[in-house]
């Protein structure tokens, strides 16, 4: 019924799928902003893992050509570009995570909470108060 060789041969796909879906679930299901950031980082890490695992060449060697440039056509070289791109993506990910955490600190200072539902309730209440004050100010002029 189950082909063990198939499952183990595609282990990177299974791990990628589990990590990605876990991260997506955390982002969608949790109301805490810090947990949402952790979920996004988990999702991002899954994409990194998937991209790097796809670029793995079995039997590949480092792409360093000989000095005399006599390249043996039987030698398989690994492509360094995916690893370089992921390194850049990691730096961008760290930057966006730090910005997100700074925003969460600012939101916490402003609203006193980092729970999404509580922030929505506070902003809705403030909006109603502002509309009420605006209506009273407009009614007082007329």
Textual characterization of the structure:
The chain has 142 residues and is mainly α. It has one domain (4-57, 77-141): Orthogonal Bundle (Helix Hairpins), CATH 1.10.287. The chain has helices at 4-9, 11-29, 33-54, 81-111, 116-141. Helix 2 runs antiparallel to helix 3 (33-54). The N and C termini lie far apart (80 Å). The mean pLDDT is 89.
Could you give the topology of this structure?
Blueprint: H1 4-9, H2 11-29, H3 33-54, H4 81-111, H5 116-141
Features:
0% strand; mainly alpha; Helix Hairpins; single chain
Summary, kept brief:
The chain is an all-alpha fold.
- The percent of residues in helical segments reads over 70%
Task: Report the order of strands and helices.
Answer: HHHHH
Global Rg:
26 Å
Largest sheet: none
Strand percentage lies at under 5%
